[in-house]
């Protein structure tokens, strides 16, 4: 048994020229990769073996990170099931001579797996200290809620339907999963996948807005199947909702093995903000749904946007 504090891991990344966009800000995909990586390190260290990202909760990018700044990533295991670990991840930025400021905060579920990607029992459990009981119980509640949300995981992994097929604004991109994409063994890292998603969605957001678009938030994402080295990974992206300066993009990922068998990896929603040359939000072209499917997705996107706005307001109030 170990306490929550004893599971903590900290990583520091320097923002270098190849990490930034044309505005001089850190790419959203880059920090997403770092977030998943520190979570994976924490889960792997705790479980004494490979661990994969199974679920990522909604999170927001509260402020940009600039070239020359440092990103301090912190992660800890707050609750354990038989094979799964509830992990909290924070990313803070710090410049020379400046105080630390929060960039994003999220929670995620990781699963301990064997060399074949099959869940394995954890060799130990988290036992909270007296001042960690509240954190532990909150993480336990997330775990129970999460189990209900992914009850259809086994059936979803075989659903290869393209949900972007009837959208006017869409793109599709395929790539090989190579050994350099793996974190442990032949399993592609969750961080690399999140970076790919941001790359494809960012391209679509830039095309629609006609200019620069930055990552604003990532909605809850369940991962139904792993990606293995040698798979062909196809990412399908389509615009589902447009606000004054924001664009919500649905991403659907399929992994295809060497013998043609396909697996549904995940479906995610990323939100992008169109910005001007000074980095301030700028209007995007108006969007009018053209068919029943687009209208339904637009209405669902409007609901998600309201939820995001309320949650972001709460987080900003907590970390002013």
Features:
alpha+beta, Thiol Ester Dehydrase, Chain A, 5 helices, 14 strands
Short recap of the structure:
With 320 residues, the chain is of the alpha+beta class. The chain has helices at 28-47, 133-149, 153-156, 190-209, 292-318; strands spanning 9-14, 51-56, 59-60, 70-80, 84-94, 101-112, 170-176, 182-184, 187-188, 213-218, 221-222, 232-242, 246-256, 262-274.
Please characterize this protein's 3D structure.
- This protein has 320 residues and is of the alpha+beta class.
- It has 2 domains: 1-149, Thiol Ester Dehydrase, Chain A; 153-320, Hotdog Thioesterase (Thiol Ester Dehydrase, Chain A, Roll).
- 28% of the residues lie in helices and 32% in strands.
- The protein has 5 helices and 14 strands.
- The chain has a 6-stranded antiparallel beta sheet with strand order 1-4-5-6-2-11. It has a 6-stranded antiparallel beta sheet with strand order 3-10-14-13-12-7.
- β13 (246-256) and β14 form a beta hairpin.
- α1 runs antiparallel to α4 (190-209).
- The longest helix has 27 residues, at 292-318.
- The model has no long low-confidence stretch (mean pLDDT 94).
């Amino acid at each position: 048994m170990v306490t929550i504090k004893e599971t903590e891991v900290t990583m520091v990344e320097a923002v270098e020229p190849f990490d930034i966009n044309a505005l001089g800000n850190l790419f959203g995909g880059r920090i997403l990769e770092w977030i998943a990586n520190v979570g994976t390190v924490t889960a792997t260290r705790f479980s004494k073996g490979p661990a994969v990202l199974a679920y990522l909760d909604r999170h927001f990018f509260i402020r940009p990170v600039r070239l020359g700044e440092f990103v301090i990533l912190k992660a800890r295991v707050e609750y354990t099931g038989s094979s799964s670990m509830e992990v909290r991840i924070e990313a803070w930025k710090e410049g020379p001579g400046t105080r630390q400021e929060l960039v994003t905060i999220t929670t995620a579920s990781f699963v301990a797996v064997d060399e074949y990607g099959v869940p394995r029992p954890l060799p130990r459990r988290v036992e909270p200290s007296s001042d960690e009981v509240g954190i532990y119980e909150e993480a336990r509640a997330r775990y129970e809620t999460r189990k209900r949300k992914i009850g259809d995981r086994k059936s979803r992994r075989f659903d290869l339907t393209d949900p972007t097929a009837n959208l006017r604004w869409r793109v599709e991109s395929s790539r090989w999963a190579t050994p350099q994409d793996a974190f442990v063994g032949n399993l592609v890292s969750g961080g690399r996948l999140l970076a790919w998603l941001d790359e494809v969605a960012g391209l679509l957001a830039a095309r629609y807005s006609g200019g620069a678009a930055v990552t604003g938030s990532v909605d809850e994402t369940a991962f139904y199947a792993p990606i293995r080295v040698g798979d062909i990974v196809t990412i399908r992206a389509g615009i589902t909702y447009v606000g004054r300066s924001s664009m919500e993009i649905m991403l659907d990922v399929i992994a295809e093995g060497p013998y043609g068998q396909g697996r549904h990896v995940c479906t995610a929603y990323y939100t992008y903000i169109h910005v001007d040359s000074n980095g301030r939000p700028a209007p995007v072209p108006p969007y009018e749904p053209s068919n029943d499917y687009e209208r339904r997705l637009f209405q669902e996107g409007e609901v998600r946007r309201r939820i995001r706005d309320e949650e972001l307001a709460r987080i900003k109030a907590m970390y002013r």
